[in-house]
Amino acid sequence: MGKREIESSVKNFEGILEKIRSGIFEPFYVLMGEEPYYSDIITSEIASRALSEEEKGFNQLILYGSDVTAAKVVEAARRFPMLASRQVVIVKEAQMMGKPDDLEHYFKSPMPTTLLVLSFTNKSLDKRTSLYKTAVANGMVFESYPLYDDMVYPWIERYLKSKGLLISPEAGMLMADHCGAELRKLVLELDKLITNLPKGEKRIESIHVEENIGISREYNVFELTKAISFRDTAKAYRIVKHFGASPRQYPLVMTMSALFMHFSRLLKYHASNSGGSKPSKGDLASYLGVNPYFMPEYDTALRNYPLIKCMEAISLIRKYDSKSKSSQRGEAEDGELLSELIFKLMH
After folding, report:
1. CA 342, CA 222: separation in Å to the nearest integer?
2. What percent of the chain clears pLDDT 70, i.e. is strictly above it?
């Protein structure tokens, strides 16, 4: 899935939330896709806003796909509300629901006094089916997509901005590297930071991340790639030694992924310099998927790692990643493999 589709999905999500918060509801919602965070939020907003607290007791029904068939869901949706203008029926884990095609008739003629929410986790309806086409024609179908790794940091900034907060580039990169693109985990950790932020503080710094999330400001993949960029071998080997001593805390597969992304960005930087016109630093930072704050580091890395060296680095990372997952590693520990790889990358 391309970035444009992902960005379009996020905008669609924001539009759906805006309507819900304005009291505008669709007859039914089909929430699906690989990133369940968005479905969680939409479902939560509907559950909290569609009915008053007094109405929820008799008119809000939460079902689970593993416990019901589509026919049972339709039966529940066809009921009339009690002492309220509508009822809300929420089906979680709808991908486990039996005979989902039985919903098609309901989608054609949804109950006007029922607000039905079907949340499919990590799964989507087949777009070729009449069930999907009928849902699109008569209700709201929302499909989510996971973020690319280089989209996580901007997402963190937007999330915190919505809370009236800022985050330093270093702290943002630490959170992005630590949590990855799994938004449920990321939001959980960000909310932890927000809760523990000193009163009156409006900017999250690396020290807050270290104290509340348990990520070392000195020993992390962000600092490792930085040391590689500047060819600071002493610092790189200190970090590698620390990683090797705590393989569970610093999984080799995550480190390999960070190294691959780092050199992939450098490769893109080289490619951007091969054309006639030179992009601005701001445009270049956006193209690379980094904050402009980090561009001086990439300028240095560009000089330290020419195009050929950069391509060799990516080949080496792939080789060692494959080696770490096979019998080719022999008796070598993760730390030993990483140390060997770093040596070859920097020499």
Report:
1. 14
2. 99
Largest interatomic CA distance in the chain? 75
- Domain range for residue 91? 3-144
- Tally of structural domains, the chain: 3
Q: Which residue has the higher pLDDT, 144 or 283?
A: 144
Provide the token pair at 267: 């490769």
Q: In sequence order, what are the residues at sequence separation of 6 or more whose Cβ sits closer than 8 angstroms to the Cβ of residue 98?
A: 68, 69, 70
The predicted-structure confidence for 185-216, as pLDDT tens digits, reads as follows 999 999 999 999 998 899 999 999 988 888 88
Domain boundary among 119, 144, 169: 144
Residue 167: Cβ within 10 Å count: 24
pTM of this prediction exceeds 0.85: no
Q: Is residue 270 a contact partner of residue 307, using CB atoms and an 8 Å limit?
A: yes
**Gyration radius (Cα) of the chain, Å:** 24
Q: Which of 113, 144, 175 is the last residue of a domain?
A: 144
CATH of the domain at 329: 1.20.272.10
Residues 6+ apart with CB under 8 A from 329: 323, 337
